[in-house]
Amino acid sequence: MPKKERPSRFHPVSHTMQTVEVPTEKISPQEQAEAWEKIAHYFRANSLWMLNYCTGCCAIELPLVMTSQYDMERLGMMPMATPRQADILLVTGYASLKTLRRLIYTYEQMGTPKYVVAFGPCAVNGGIYHDAYAVLNRLDLYLPVDLYIAGCMPKPEAVMNGFKRLIELIESGQATGWKDYERRFDWYKSNQLEAVGEVYIHDEFHE
Amino acid sequence: MNIIHLILGLFLAGIAAYGIGRLKPAAASWLTLAASWAALLILFLGGDTLAGGNAWGLLAFKMTPLGWFFSMTLLFVYSTNTFFNLSVPAAPTRQAAYPMLYLISLASTIGVFSAENWLALFIFWEIVLWSSTFMIGFGKPGRGSIIYFGMSLLGSFMMLFAILVMGTAYQTFEVKGALMAAAQSPGPALLVFLLMLFSAMVKLGITPFHIWMPEAYHEAPDHFAPVLAGGLSKLGAFTALMVTSFLPASTLMAQPWQVRGLPLLTYILLTVSAVSIVIGTLMAIKQEDAKKLLAYSSVANSGYIMIGMLMGTPMSVSGALVHLLAHALATTVTFMVMAAVARQTGTTRMDELGGLLHRMPITFLAFLTAILSLVGLPPMLGFVSKWLILQSLASQGLFLVAAAAIFGSIGSLLYAFRILSTVFLGQLKPKHRQVREAPAVLLIPLLLLSGVTLVLGIYPYGLVQYTAKIENSLGFADTVQITGLSIQGNNGNLNALLIMGAFAIGFLIALGIFLKAPKSRKVDLMDTYTGGEFIYSPELYSYSTNFFAPLERVYAGLPEISRLYEALANRVRDLGTLVQYLFFSPLPSRTALLISVVTILLIWGEAI
Amino acid sequence: MQMNPVLTIALPLILAFTKIMYRRIANLFLVLGSLLNVLVVFFIKEGQYLMGGYAPPFGIVLQVDAYALYSLLVLNVLFAALTILVTKKAENLTSSSLIALAALNGLILTGDLFNLFVFLEIAAIAAIIIASSSKRYHHAFHYMVASIIGSTFYLLGLILLYKQYGTLNMAKMHELMLASPGGSSVAVILIFVGLAVEVKLMPFSGWVKGVLKNADEWIGPMIGAIYGGAMMIVMGRLFTDVFVVSPKVTLLLSILALVTLVGGEAAAYDSEKMREILLYSGVAQSGLEILLILNGYAALSFILILSNMMAKYVMFLLSGYIVNAAGTDVLGDLKGLFRSNPFLGFAFTAAGLSLAGLPLFVGFFIKLNILYNLMMSHSYWLPAIILITSLVEGIYMLRMILGLWQTGLEVQETGIQIISPSNIKTKYAVHAITLILSLAMVVFGLMPDYALDLAQKARGNAVADKPAMMIGMKGGPGQ
Amino acid sequence: MNALQSIGTGLGMALFGWLLQTTISGVTRKVIARIQKRRGPVWYQNFRDIMKLLNKRSVTHGWAFDFGLLVALAGAIGTAMFMPVAGIVAFKGFDNFFMIIYLAALGVFGRALSSGSSGNPLATIGVMRGLTQNIGYKVPYMLLVIALISYYRTSSISEIVELQRVSGWSVLVMPLGFVVAFISLHGMLGKKPFDTYLAPAEIASGPLVEYGGKQLGILMIAHELSVFIEVSLFVNLFLGGGATLPEFLLKYAFIYILSSSLGAVMGRFRIEQVVRFYYKVPIALTIVQILMLAVMRGGVR
Amino acid sequence: MMELLSLSLLFLGMYGLITKHHVLKMIVSMNVMEIGLNLFITSLGYQESHLAPILSSKFPSSALNFVDPLPQSLVLTSIVIGVGTTAVALAFAKKIYMDYGTLDLEKIEGRL
After folding, report:
1. Do residues D103 and D64 touch, judged by C-beta distance below 8 A?
2. Domain residues of chain E, as ranges?
3. Distance (Å) from the alpha carbon of B583 to chain C's nearest alpha carbon
4. Which of A68, A146, B188, D178 minimizes the number of CB atoms within 10 Å of its CB?
5. Which residues of B touch D70 (CB under 8 A)?
6. pTM of the entire structure?
7. With a CB-CB cutoff of 8 Å, which residues 403-422 of chain C face chain B?
């Protein structure tokens, strides 16, 4: 894959990510692999298992989405218990100093490919908590967000809409945040370090 | 070369080993190794037609198929275990006597299995007993060796009583002859039958007599526990099988009460064995020490052997014999593994271990094989035997016993997983980070024994054929049948090779899928799901204490049988205290009083 | 060359009194005297020896049969070995030791009931003086009271017998009793009680604890093994060769013996101290021996007495040395003692295992034959009781032995040398003697036929003996 | 070649079992969704899940982690190869009940081994709960089957099916036993209220806690296969199997969907409730059943 | 009559041994017992209107009108032995007193 230019840390990533082109080079084994990848994308898109990390208030919208009114199982989506099993990490709200550490830890435990969906404005710029001392305003500095769902809180329709969009992205191979995280690991790490200090904290409570 | 030479040679080698051991302990261990392997070779080459002999009148020997089978089993256990003797730390404790006792007990077991005379059998039986007691004494301090000795002595004396009853009632001490005579003319035959069986049950560790097992296995030196568990307890099966086949309960009990075609007595004994399975399983689930857990698993497995022998059908006896071998091999491996673990880490408590799989992989594999065989899963030998025994239970329709057998079988999965998971799986403790794989000399016997378990599990036909031969020699009308590659059961056939084949095909498919799929990333053991929490203490991040707590709560009130024996011992003590108080007063006047009163009583008693 | 058995009595007596003049070489007297006695015993031939030239019913006679001869041999050898080992201890007791030897020999040899009483009294006084060498005089006094009551009873019974039959000669007495058996039961009971005090039968054995629980390597083997054995041999002589006991009295006394057997084993099981265990087990063993004697198993009881004597001798001797070295005989404090004294440990172990009746040692065949013969004649309950007591005995015996071999994890070896290295001579002597005795137990355990044959021969013609069917290594009946 | 043919049939049976059960799982998900007034996923959703998992890159905790999985799948495939379905038996005469139970147990053991070696105590707790539950339902179940074997005098599944065709279904022989067996089956399938060993909200799906990607995929395949084994064993033993494939499929689907639907409307037991229930009710019922048999028919022959 | 009297003396001594804990009293009891026994023995040998068993010029042959001489000789021996034991017992009494400062055995045992 050609190395796509990444925006600097001062430019939001999410908008450009949706317009990533699938590269089309023709080398036989690779082509074969890509053909296989396309099939795999189909399966990935239609079997999304999610881990909802309820950092904030947006999580309250999820029950509605899961249950009979909107029934996200029809999209093949299911809630999962552990990050190992999950494909999507749902960040439902703002990230604070404490939760971000756990978010990162959880995200890194997920198997690839994996996707991050952020809810509400708090994940974009801190929303109404933007000046709170413990809230980290921009999530995409620390984790590669594949999809934002707008609304404070987003309505269930918006959530469903977002999920549909995510499925499209995955099916077309555009949700590549996890690759980005691997590629620019150092960059993310330095941001994380700057924000929360040590991610894997060692202190008297955790030893 | 005949049996006498073999036994005498081993005795002499034992004494020589003592002399050498005083000078150079390592050389003595090598001598035990050489001697026991040589004995194994001789016995193997000699086969069950190895010449017997007559040393003095009493010590006459004759090899029978049954004796050969048992001797081979025990010799194999003994000789593989000699590798562990090599790793005994020599200097701090003077254990020159250990190789001597080891070889003496080995020689005596051969004596037990080939004796033609009950008294000779008993003599060897007792030599095994006290020599092994002393060997247990080399281990941890405690009451284990005494409990072992006391219980075994109880068994031996029951046996002696039975022997003497046979000797006085039938005027013969010949092993087969005496039992046959008892079967011909049942006078005190029932007494003989029960006492003999009880003594065998003590040795096998069947329930009311099992209390010595956990204590002795726990306290025995780690390098002797395999022999004790895998070898010596099988002595009981030998006499039990001879009694049940030459003096079957069906000829003894002319009484009308029968349960499902079996005499009531047999049924009661079967129930006792079934209880043994249940109690062994339940107690094994509860233990915190690996060796004690394995000991209770032996209690349970002995129950299977006993059931197989008591039912007395060709298939069940065959199952009992195969199970005996399977259990001998498997339990030897498990105790050897525990010895290796204890050697490398210094403990056998399960809550102090964990994750050793990553440090001792080969040991783990051997342990896995053995534990699978203990549980009775294919493709191990334990499966073949459990299949045979369950088949016979099903065809007899003994539901109570079958329920216990099933319970034991499924329960064994519980304790097997417990020991596997707490010792080898789970988190590696930081203090064990530097632990290394056991030295090669310890791995040889492990691989040998588990290899035999596996090979016999896949291809058990020769073995089952041999049990048929044993049954022939024991006078069974028909024996277990094998046609081609299938063992013919009463209501089904077993083809172990086919099972292994199906499993192998399944494994290949699984491997194919596994390899085709993307390669996984290897992560550290502590990199697990913690609910987002940061945890760095492997000691705390493991589940090993009070493992089956929900289940244990169900039978927390189960009374322990050892209490009964303790109470008994305390009564003896009380009697002793009373005697000391009454008759051994320090005051002369008390003595004078006793003398005069008792004299008067005697004279009065004479007068009336 | 043939020697008069009276020498075995007279020689020590003479030496005992001449010794008073040569106080400085007293030890030499003791050692030489006992060794000379052994020598004399070797040259004694069986037969009847008259004293003072009167014919048997009137004069005193020494009855030397195989029974007396073998007993004499074992007794004198053990005694001589003991004097060699513990000359230091016996320094002030030379006279009484020699007198004790003379009296014991006399006890075994004499064929006259009153003469037996005299020897009994002399032996008792000597024993009391020996027992008092532990400086615990009130225990010795206890012993004295008991033995005086015993001898009084003996004399009372004796005089009643005399009144009835008009003789004191054993052989004559036996003839007369056979001729008119009635009416002598009270006397027999009294004599039995009198001797029972000495052989430690249980209700009469209150003195044993005080004397033996503090026994050193001199008192222990002497009182615990040699005296007990000799007295038991006398008991065997009287109740198989002399008295004709009515079945009722036999039953009564057998009950007493059984109570002793059971109670003694229980008491030993309850003890935590080495010497107490040994003394109680000695009490229990004497119960078994008396049981056999009373029921007429003369040969079996004889060989049991001898083997027990040897085993007890070794064990008491070693326990004395152990207490010397360690200052205690509480088993818990002596863990791992034999690790540093393996040979002595081996001897102790062999003696203990033989006592407990485990195979490879002579005790096994004796016990086997006892059980077999009891079973041949009685119902099953007596062997069952004996087996149960044997079980108890085996357990405490092994508990003791294992405790002495086994080192705890936290308790490291005691490192106590039972015999101080400075005392080299004693060391080798003790090693040699205990090892020879324990090896003898192993050898006879492997080849019991010889010993059993000898016992059979010695007691086969005993009057009350039931013909025992002996099972040896050669095989038993039905082979 | 006869042997090759047999092996082919066996493999076919395993494949068929997997396809069947995975499909029916999907259908069941839809049924349950309907019960809950939802639409539910497509019927082939489980295939999609498995394929996705197999294409995911995940983590491993060491060789035993993977090896145990392979044993689990191999055990399941091996067992499925022996399963008689609608008169088709791969290895005639060897479709022995005890063998099937034990070979299946090997798969279970493999799973336990794998999840135990992940190092996560939640997994260990899950396995512990599963095994604890296992005793509760396996003992009465196997006891009943032994009664059946003793009744039909054969432990071959296909022969039992044949005999049922002659003498009526086993459910008629032991009606109470059928209830017990169904409760046991419910536990074996891990449907609510007996999914305590998974309990996603409590111990984070227990044994499965560390699995993702291909490991989870293989585990799902093995799970589908073992469900196939359990349900078809039940159908064969108690409901007379099926002379034709549709008959078998009907019974199979009915039993599985019934069990799942029951699960859909129930809550989860806590582990001590499971123990309290399982160690009393089925065992008591089994004893009553066997006594009934003994009284009514003069004992199981 | 004589027999019974002497036997009662024996029982008296026995009674003393049973009831007393004082060393000297026990020794006295032992002596009483012995004397009773000796008297009993002599009384058994005594026959009414028989002569003392002494060969003299007046009774030159051992005819049958002597009393039985044997018990008397036995008693002689017995007395000698009794003296010996009493001596040893008294020595012990002295030693016990030196060791414990008391002759009451009960007190001694209590002290140990």
Report:
1. no
2. 2-48+71-111
3. 6
4. A68
5. 507, 510-511, 514
6. 0.88
7. 405-409, 411, 413
| pLDDT value of residue C112 | 84
- List the 62-121 stretch of A: residues with Cβ below 8 A of B: 82-84, 101-103, 105-106, 109
Q: Which amino acid is at C373?
A: N
Looking at residue D107, its pLDDT comes to 85
Nearest Cα of chain D lies from the Cα of B391 at a distance, in angstroms, of: 8
D205 neighbourhood in chain A, CB within 8 Å: 80-82, 85
Number of domain units in chain C: 1
Mean pLDDT of chain E: 82
> Is residue C376 classed as helix, strand or coil in its secondary structure?
helix
pLDDT at residue A13 above 50?
no
Residue D239 C-alpha, separation from nearest chain B C-alpha, in angstroms: 21
What is the DSSP secondary structure assignment for residue A183, as one 8-state letter?
H
Domain-embedded: residue C331: yes
Question: Which spans in B87-143 are helix H?
Answer: 97-114, 118-137
Q: Tell me the percentage of chain C whose pLDDT exceeds 70.
A: 89
Q: How far apart are CA C272 and CA D101, in angstroms?
A: 55
Structure confidence by residue, pLDDT tens digits, E2-21: 788 888 998 899 998 888 88
Residue C110 lies in a domain: no
Q: Which residues of C touch B161 (CB under 8 A)?
A: 371, 380, 383-384, 387
- Tell me which DSSP letter residue A175 carries: -
Q: How confident is the model at residue C453 (pLDDT cuts 50, 70, 90)?
A: confident
Architecture of domain A27-196: 3-Layer(aba) Sandwich (3.40)
Chains that touch C (3 or more CB pairs under 8 A): B, E
Domain limits for position C412: 311-479
Nearest CA in chain C to E25: C145
Backbone angles phi, psi at D196, to 5 degrees: -60, -30
Is A101 in Cβ contact with B534 (below 8 Å)? yes
Q: Is the pLDDT of residue D269 over 60?
A: yes
Cα–Cα distance measured from residue B146 to residue B162, given in angstroms and rounded to the nearest whole number: 24
- How many CB pairs below 8 A link B and E? 23
* Of E10, E33, E88, Cβ closest to residue C144: E88
Mean pLDDT by 10 residues, chain B (608 residues): 83 87 80 87 82 72 86 89 72 64 88 86 88 82 83 90 85 81 77 87 86 86 84 87 79 61 78 89 86 88 88 85 90 88 81 82 89 86 86 78 85 87 84 81 86 87 84 79 74 79 87 84 81 78 82 82 87 90 85 88 84
Residue written as token pair 């033989």: C354
Between residues 523 and 582 of chain B, which touch chain A (CB distance below 8 Å)?
Answer: 527, 529, 532-537
**Residue C415, pLDDT above cutoff 70:** no
Provide the residue ranges of all domains of chain A, joining segments of one domain with +: 27-196
- Is C393 a domain residue? yes
Report ipTM (2 d.p.). 0.84
Question: Taking the domain E2-48+71-111, which CATH number applies?
Answer: 1.10.287.3510
User: What integer pLDDT is reported at residue B90 of this predicted model?
Assistant: 46
Task: Answer whether C254's CB lies under 8 Å from C381's CB.
Answer: no
Residue to test with chain D: of A84, A88, A114, most D Cβ within 10 A: A84
* Residue D246, CB-side half-sphere exposure with 13 Å CA sphere: 0
CA distance C466 to C292: 10
